[in-house]
């Protein structure tokens, strides 16, 4: 996924009200950027750290920039939670995700039952629903999800179970937007109900695919499939 416009460099002053962040740009000016990440951002929030922002395409938007990434431990961590959906769509369309190749029809935002899944992929023999989650939480060598309690995430798992019961393929695709981790796992200490629901889903045949992404100021690209522990 290439960034459409040149990103703007700065340093983080503070994040507040969940969706706002004050950033000091290299020219000394201070701007307020939109933060798409509604979680705690634990382990990827450090005041004074380098950040990159993307300019807003809508001149009428209140915040002129969107916060894209932050440098933690000398590597970039992607914090824009809308990027993984586009990244996954592009990669599945191009057959670049191991286990999700060979689909001739790929659509975004497809409704099933009372839920809307991020991606539907199909061909002449198979139908597959994919839910995409952004992962930024790090603990040791583990990438963990979620970083806050998510009842919406539990609902998606339950609906994926119904997809599987109806004979279709159901996939949880976790996009890990940092390279300083080696294993994916649910954050059971933060949301034990989600961890239990994920285990139930996996035991029923729902697939888990954690993909690690390399984040740079020019692009975000998937680099490898991570092992996982449930």
From TrEMBL:
This is Sugar fermentation stimulation protein homolog. It holds the Pfam family SfsA_N. PANTHER family: SUGAR FERMENTATION STIMULATION PROTEIN A (PTHR30545). InterPro entries: SfsA, SfsA_C, SfsA_N. Belongs to the SfsA family. It comes from the Bacteria. One of its GO terms (molecular function) is DNA binding. Signal peptide: none annotated. The gene is sfsA. Residues 84-218 form the Sugar fermentation stimulation protein C-terminal domain. Residues 13-79 form the SfsA N-terminal OB domain.
């Amino acid at each position: 996924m290439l960034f459409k416009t040149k990103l703007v460099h700065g340093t983080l002053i503070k994040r507040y009200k969940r969706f706002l962040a004050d950033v000091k740009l290299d020219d000394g000016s201070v701007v307020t950027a939109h933060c798409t990440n509604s979680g705690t951002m634990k382990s990827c929030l450090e005041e004074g750290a380098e950040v990159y922002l993307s300019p807003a395409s809508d001149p009428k938007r209140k915040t002129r920039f969107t916060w894209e990434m932050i440098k933690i431990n000398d590597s970039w961590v992607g914090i824009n939670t809308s990027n993984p959906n586009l990244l996954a769509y592009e990669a599945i369309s191009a057959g670049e995700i191991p286990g999700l190749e060979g689909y001739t029809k790929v659509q975004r935002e497809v409704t099933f039952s009372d839920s809307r899944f991020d991606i539907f992929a199909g061909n002449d023999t198979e139908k597959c629903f994919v839910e995409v989650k952004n992962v930024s939480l790090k603990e040791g060598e583990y990438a963990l999800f979620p970083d806050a309690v998510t009842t919406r995430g539990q609902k998606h798992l339950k609906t994926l179970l119904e997809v599987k019961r109806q004979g279709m393929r159901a996939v949880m695709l976790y996009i890990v937007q940092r390279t300083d981790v080696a294993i994916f796992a649910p954050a059971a200490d933060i949301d034990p109900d989600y961890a239990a629901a994920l285990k139930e889903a996996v035991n029923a045949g729902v697939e888990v695919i954690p993909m690690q992404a390399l984040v740079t100021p020019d692009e975000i690209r998937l680099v490898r499939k991570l092992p996982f522990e449930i």
